[in-house]
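Journal club side-thread
Mid-discussion, someone asked how the predicted structure for our own chain would compare to the paper's figures. Pasting it here so we can look after the session.
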Amino acid sequence: MESQILKKYTDYLKYEKGLSGNSISSYVSDLQKLTKFLLKENKDFSVATAKDIQSFLREENKKKISQRTRAREIAAFNQFYRFLLNNDEIQINPIQDMERPKLERVLPDFLSRNEIKILFQSFNENDPLEFRDKTMFELMYSSGLRISEAVNLKIHDLDTKNCFITVLGKGDKKRIVPYGEIANELLDKYIGVIRPQLLKDENNAYLFISRKGGHLDRKSAWRILKKKIEKLNILKNITPHTLRHSFATHMMQSNADIRSVQELLGHMDISTTQIYTHMASNETREAHKLYHPRS
């Protein structure tokens, strides 16, 4: 497996998907086992077919692996091939139609409405860097952006008059996404006052600027949010992607149409969006248990 692609993929799992170190290690280990198997067939991942991967899984079954391990391996391969597809490394995902063991789906963490309020109240708006951070995270929560989409925004992608952004998503697919008044107020001050301070004498088209006037990258954004969450003592695995989960969950809790949420998130398949129906209903159920006199 090409080390450069694997490095990009592990960065994607950590900074985009917000996976834990253990999950990333498991995914990488599964890919390394597949790569070793393919080498025996004088192939690599870029030319592997569904039959090749099924042969690998048959070999794994001989080792008496659990159904959960098999499901994780298939999930790891599917995630990897989707990543390659979105980055134009391959033309077809060879296992997109492969049946997977039915397991209970683990719902990702999201911030409650109160936790969102606590988070955004914690930023010091008198500090230019903290104002930038608050603006970026508010925009992400307001519009459901991925962290890569947020940090790659350029000034010309914003329509501040109508509160719309043109977003370049996965697979270089463009979508138009609205954002709210709170985000717009922050953007107005950030673009007019804060961003020129951060730019200094640099010429940079990107919306969010680093301390030195360059392009703020997703790793830096990930570290900024993790540090802020640790200070607030919110005991959840929070990453920038959690803001996207929170956006979608809160939309579903407010009875937003699932097709609209799918479009806003840029999901190709509505089944990906349906997880937020479960997340919203779970929180509603918990509220019922807490507050209803006969629950």
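Post-session note: The first strand starts at residue 158 and ends at 159.
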